[in-house]
Amino acid sequence: MGPEPFSRRTFLSAAGLAGLSVPLLAACGGDDSGDSGGSAETVTIEWWNIATTEPGKTLWPKLAKEYEAANPNVKIKFVATENDAYKAKMTAQTASGKLPDIFHTWGGGVLKQQIDAGLVKDLTKDVAPWLGTLLPISLEAYKFDGKTYAVPFDIGMVGFWYNKALFTKAKIDKPPATWAELIEDVKKLKAAGITPMALAGKEKWPGHYYWAYLAMRIGGLPALQQAATSNDFTGPGFVEAGRRLKELADLDPFQRGFLNASYPSSDGQAAQMGNGKTAMELMGQWAPSVQSDAGKGLGDDLGFFPFPTVDGGQGAATEVFGGGSGHALSKDAPKAAVDFLKWFASIDVDRRLVESKGYQPVVKGAESALTDPNLKIVNQTLGSATGFQLFLDQAFPPAVGQEVNDSVAALIAGKSTPEQVTQKITQTAKSQ
Amino acid sequence: MALSTLKDGQSEDAVAESSAGSAASGRATRRRRRWNRLTIILFLLPALVLFTLLVLVPILIALYASFFRWGGFGLPSDFVGLDNFTRLFQDEVFLGDLWRGLVLILLSIGIQLPFALSIAVLLNQRLRGRAFYRLLFFAPYVLSEVITGVLFTMIFSPDEGLANHLLEMVGLGHLNPTWFADESLVLFTLFLVMTWKYFGFHMILYLAGLQSIPKEVLEAASIDGAGSWQRFRHVTLPLLGPTIRISIFLSVIGAIQLFDLVWVITQGGPVHASETMSITLFQFGFKRYQVGYASAISVVMFVISFVFAIFYQRYVMRRDTEGAVTAMRGLR
């Protein structure tokens, strides 16, 4: 094991960022991953993930220990970082030109950028023998030009999670199927003195779900995908999506002080739901587990309904918006890391992930481990989906994704118009 | 060591000039001067190398990068001239950053520092348990910014926060503000936290300054018939001048570079209402990968801090730093 290769490029980009912020980079330094050694030699693989909430928080370190026990020559350095902090850390790490051996990825534009920078291992050959055991839809986000760059461990979708008891209290007998019904239900809930929706305004990404889903329902999935390539988001579907969202925001449906609420904290979006204070939230498949982690959890009172259709819109209710999570490897990751991914995507491990109720099955046959009725609905909706759109802040290049989040946040706060949102996103996309 | 060598060299210089007739002694002096220079260079070298590598080079690279549209990968190649800067000065968010920075600076100088000074004067009196109070008021400064941020996010939480409970207890429950979630209130709430966090530091500075004021001067003033306010206004305050000037300096530089506290509490929100230059820089550099543009922000931040530091030291702190920054004039 010689010294790490230290190219001029990595030096320059690291130095450039150091100019921006020396302490930040200094805080992220330090890695001692082993290169691929002989079979007898102990290999250390560094595994960066975001398992800081239950059930992953307990289960994952346990899995790492088990793998170490079964493979005595492999040591796993387990590094768990909170979601938002992880993204920031990875940005600095990517710019410095050195990624950890195994790292969490959502695929899409961010992964693409890391691939383009030559930092990610092409897994196509390594995973070819066993890729067929995985659900095809779960692999979508990690494929570029026919090559596979990551192995999924979770796949899911965003939809409305609602409190059945509060809906009953507001005399709503069934969940809304159209946007107009949703608006009516929000009014009913407000009239009954119940906060209709929980939103983490500080973090911005939960807000962009509304706009993205509305754009899918109104303009249709093809329009959204076309905008992503033409970089033109000024089409009528996008403006209309903004108008509908403004229509909702004008009803003041969110909890008090939502503009500075975070997602997982003890008074954040998930806790609002988990403690039965608000009636619904638009969130991914992980919502129930975070609700009971940040708050008490709703148990049988929790229900799920897909994002409603919009009258006159092009999109179908079966088109889903969401994403999954997977693990990618750094360019120079040792072979042991590939073996680990194979083990992690085995049906036994996947069943255990599913049983922990925090993840959706990605291995064929693992869905039988689903016990929660709501997660079964999510699984079935995904199974019968006619179209799939990855989270916009992951699918698009980072600058565009952040602009979507920022602009939509301003729209929800009443500081921006639907037209301004589409203009700003287009402007950022065109300048890429 | 270096300073005394310098002085020797200079006096030698004077001698050499006055006795210009003797060529032999001139040569000897030159040799010795050269030797002295070598010593200076030798001793300065390690620090100079580190400073160049860790401070000057990154600054220059950031300056270089600010002329490019650059995503942070590979070498910057898309030269755009001053585009990043023209874009910067049309960016509402960045112009807002400048305005908010100014507001925070004015609030700090107008409220935070006088508050710290009054507490310092108070704790400079004979007072039972004053060591305890000094420790108590200084404690927040020791706490990390992140812990402070999390703590006050909880205190100012709209529903369950301590702040609103307190308001309720004093009969102001109907106000029920949302603090950090309120665009018109967020900056002032943030200032409150900053004051809590940093006033103790300035208080310690002032205490040190106060203790260096000789008692005789104050006694003399008393004998001359000065009341306690007059003593403070005409004796203590002028003698505290150097401390106050350095405290203002640190406060301003701190406000310009404010980042961690804001990032933890609001991330600059709601809708940029508490965003600072450093937050904008971070957003573009580390979230949007627009490193060229972020470099331009860092360059502007650097220029603002640098120009302020130079002018402040040259014109305001002139007397205090005599012999350091403004040494040239004194030595000539």
From TrEMBL, chain A:
PROSITE patterns for the chain: TAT (PS51318)
SUPFAM superfamilies (UniProt xref): Periplasmic binding protein-like II
Keywords (A to Z) from UniProt: Signal
Record has Protein transport as a keyword: no
Gene3D superfamilies for the chain: Periplasmic binding protein-like II
InterPro entries in alphabetical order: Bact_solute-bd_prot1, SBP, TAT_signal
Domain of life: Bacteria
A matching Pfam family: SBP_bac_1
Signal peptide: 1-26
Database matches in PANTHER family: ARABINOSE-BINDING PROTEIN-RELATED (PTHR43649), BLR3389 PROTEIN (PTHR43649:SF14)
Protein name: Extracellular solute-binding protein
UniProtKB/TrEMBL annotation, chain B:
Transmembrane parts of this sequence: 40-67, 98-123, 135-156, 185-208, 246-265, 291-312
Subcellular locations according to the entry: Cell membrane
InterPro entries: ABC_transporter_permease, MetI-like, MetI-like_sf
Listed Pfam families: BPD_transp_1 (PF00528)
Region Disordered, residue ranges: 1-20
Domain ABC transmembrane type-1 span(s) in chain numbering: 98-312
UniProt topology in membrane: Multi-pass membrane protein
Keyword field contains Ribosomal protein: no
Ranges in a coiled coil: none
Secretion signal, residue range per the UniProt entry: none
Protein name: Sugar ABC transporter permease
The organism of origin for this protein: Actinomadura alba
